[in-house]
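Example 9 (inverse folding). The structure is encoded as follows.
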């Protein structure tokens, strides 16, 4: 696992603590950030279910001004903290420990970009979108990226979010929604 482009390009990241955490493959991450190119710069980002923090750190590397990292696992939070330190990104980073509801309840800053990659078996995408909408956490025109398995599909609109793109990469699908 590494940072692909930007300020931290080439930095190797500490991997997730165990096999239960599924990192976004580099080729999917590269494609994702190619799609999000103009959205990332100067954005406020949430990397929810962050695992190692790779998506949030890639966003910071590419010019995001701030990233909130949220995860329930203490081991993942430890690794996120180490990866943030390794990239010297402490000033632009905020780590929140707890399940997704606790993390979302602590957020008070409007978000431009949300990475939503929960454990697939938990199927939490819609729950998170409902809370994001209810609490008005995503700015008008903001983007939410759902990473999910190929056998799971989402409607064109849900909870006030409209699907603007969907891309398949082997068994992984990115569904990109706009507020």
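The amino acid assigned to each position is listed next.
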């Amino acid at each position: 696992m590494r940072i692909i482009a930007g300020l931290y390009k080439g930095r190797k990241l500490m991997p997730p603590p165990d096999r239960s955490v599924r990192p976004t493959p580099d080729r999917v991450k590269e494609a994702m950030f190619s799609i999000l190119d103009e959205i990332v710069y100067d954005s406020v980002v949430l990397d929810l279910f962050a695992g190692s923090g790779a998506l949030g750190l890639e966003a910071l590397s590419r010019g995001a001004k701030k990233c909130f990292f949220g995860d329930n696992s203490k081991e993942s939070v430890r690794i996120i903290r180490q990866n943030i330190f390794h990239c010297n990104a402490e000033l632009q980073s905020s780590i929140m420990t707890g399940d997704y509801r606790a993390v979302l309840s602590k957020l008070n800053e409007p978000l431009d970009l949300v990475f939503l990659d929960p454990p697939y078996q938990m199927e939490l995408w819609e729950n998170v979108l409902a809370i994001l909408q209810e609490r008005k956490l995503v700015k008008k025109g903001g983007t939410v990226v759902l990473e999910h398995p190929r056998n799971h599909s989402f409607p064109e609109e849900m909870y006030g979010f409209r699907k603007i793109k969907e891309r398949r990469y082997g068994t992984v699908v990115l569904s990109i929604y706009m507020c």
